[in-house]
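Hey all, sorry for the wall of text incoming. These are the three entities for the joint prediction.
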Amino acid sequence: MMRSKLLSLVPCATGPFRTMSTTTKLTTVEVNDKTGIATLTMNRPPVNGLNLDLLRDLRQSIAEIEGNKSRGLILTSSNPTIFSAGLDIMEMYKPDKERVRAFWTALQDAWLALYGSSVPTAAAINGHSPAGGCLLATSCEYRVMLPKFTIGLNETKLGIVAPMWFMSSFLSVLPRREAERALNQGRMFTTDEALQIGLVDEAAGTKEEALEKCAQFIGTFAKVNPIARALTKQQFRAAELEQLESERAQDLEKFLFFINQPAVQKGLGIYLESLKKKAKN
Amino acid sequence: MMRSKLLSLVPCATGPFRTMSTTTKLTTVEVNDKTGIATLTMNRPPVNGLNLDLLRDLRQSIAEIEGNKSRGLILTSSNPTIFSAGLDIMEMYKPDKERVRAFWTALQDAWLALYGSSVPTAAAINGHSPAGGCLLATSCEYRVMLPKFTIGLNETKLGIVAPMWFMSSFLSVLPRREAERALNQGRMFTTDEALQIGLVDEAAGTKEEALEKCAQFIGTFAKVNPIARALTKQQFRAAELEQLESERAQDLEKFLFFINQPAVQKGLGIYLESLKKKAKN
Amino acid sequence: MMRSKLLSLVPCATGPFRTMSTTTKLTTVEVNDKTGIATLTMNRPPVNGLNLDLLRDLRQSIAEIEGNKSRGLILTSSNPTIFSAGLDIMEMYKPDKERVRAFWTALQDAWLALYGSSVPTAAAINGHSPAGGCLLATSCEYRVMLPKFTIGLNETKLGIVAPMWFMSSFLSVLPRREAERALNQGRMFTTDEALQIGLVDEAAGTKEEALEKCAQFIGTFAKVNPIARALTKQQFRAAELEQLESERAQDLEKFLFFINQPAVQKGLGIYLESLKKKAKN
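and here's what came out:
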């Protein structure tokens, strides 16, 4: 992995950046022409639920940012109160056989692309960030969060099991002791709690301030060789990346086996009903 | 492991719990009919030395608690000043060939059962907890300790080497840097020191208060799906559990090789003599 | 590994120690006859650059200390402002094919000897300690640092990639989250910052005070069985030691491949020019 990446990496351009803005259906990429930093915005109303399409767009946008000589990637949401509500349950409830396989594969791909990204990554968490939303945030290298929101891997409260690579992202941020307890409890942390435990690095009053603080973090790499940085990061994260890469098929089968348990389907159905009732009120 | 466990797991009953009390020779299991939490009490005078019989009883009691739909397990001691003094040296000094094999195997079994337990576990540490006592406490998910006692893996002070899975339990609680130093020093921590470094989670003035705080920790899982919780915990701990499971035979041989070194036998003999003298004074 | 080491280990002598002082070309070993602690001083002007000869001397001195029944090893520098400036770039710039292989192999050997040393180790960091200097310091079990110096793995700033085993030493000291960020940023920490984050354990006003504090740390093992201690430490560090031992050849090839990239050679050339200009001013 290392070698092929090394050969394909291109050093940062030092000249002025072109302003680029690309819109796929569900994500937007905007590159700041002064800083050279790309902002990747998730835009799938109502809650940035991670379905097959959003996951594929995410991966494509990450690849685009890797290719366009950006100095860094900031992940954020167009929704003013939700960063991402996590995996779209509609992809898992009474799923189509082929589509659910494509869905999980797209999730694996998006994680491998983000967690292993060669450019510096930061999340401007401008809304609630449960489950898969927390996965995306903890796969970045830095997190800035707005007040009065919550973040966490709350899968056990939903009756599902976060796979090992969700845990890997979590463990790259939190001490093992704290990570295990939070995972088992399915605990959601407020912004203040997340800051105190280290689940996020900074708080910010507004989205603009959050984006600015993310840009400052990315700025700490200004005098760092981008190839050496990318290889160092990927080597540091190699064990987790290689574990999923080598166990992709088993990981997919494990997910399919679990999701097809009658008790799990029943639980998802009850949860969906509760969401519908909430929506009516 | 995951799949077979999944299929055999039974969700918590939501109705009232039967009050059950089982006494084997050296342990007691008592289930609180209001909370559904089982208290597992070690009761082998004078110091809860972990010999073959206590270890077998411990494992059997853990299995019973797993099977009786308890909401959680609290491990404690009937002794007012000693949680457990650790491995019974009489099992290792001039040992019978067959018995010492059974002893170590029972220790492996007890650890696999407790560290990998599907129910929430907490230790009410109501007395000193050196070596094997600390192993049991750190194999639980939460620790509450009474004041003026000590806890730690002090094997190096006794001239023996804590096996890798003792280290795994320790590392699931302490940061790596702190764990290594304490292990090499064979350091015993006072209650205050243990609290400060994170080796225990809370202090309590009395055993009743300790049991209550353990029950409160177990209560944090009230709204968590018990199957998802169990699978999450076991996945989080899988690497350590699988390591011992796959290396049981080598681990046993390593222990036997070590324990049969003349220098080690001599050291144990001297230590036993010093204990006898203490007992006389 | 464990067994052969066990059989070859010799317990600490309890009688008075002989005063020994051995000088190889680039290191000095001095054993305090009261404490039995060996001080290993790097002495390669002007900056203790780690070249083939210094690395071979380091390894030989560590072996000597292991063999002479010392109670511990304190690593320090004869230079009043530089602990070690890290790998000697002259060994990597336009290198001789055979010598550069011997150089990297000597670095592997020195790390395996120091990180896996059976005696307690401490670093009295009496000057700047970048890159390879930080590797040596973090391979010891304890660190005391003088004020107003800097320490860190700043390889990404030099355009190179610290190998996995550099990361292992770093991770044996820092939490994962902090280690990754610092590695990616190539961050140098001041003494105060290093103390706060845990990269060093204590600060000291003078070299004498630093040596004294290192000796006090080594003194914490006075009542610990030295064989049990050595086996415990080596077992705790076994995964990292075994990883390099089993991948030595690939690690060497990876280094040679990297160092021979035209872009890397060009970067080293520019860096050397800048050093020459600095030296003139």
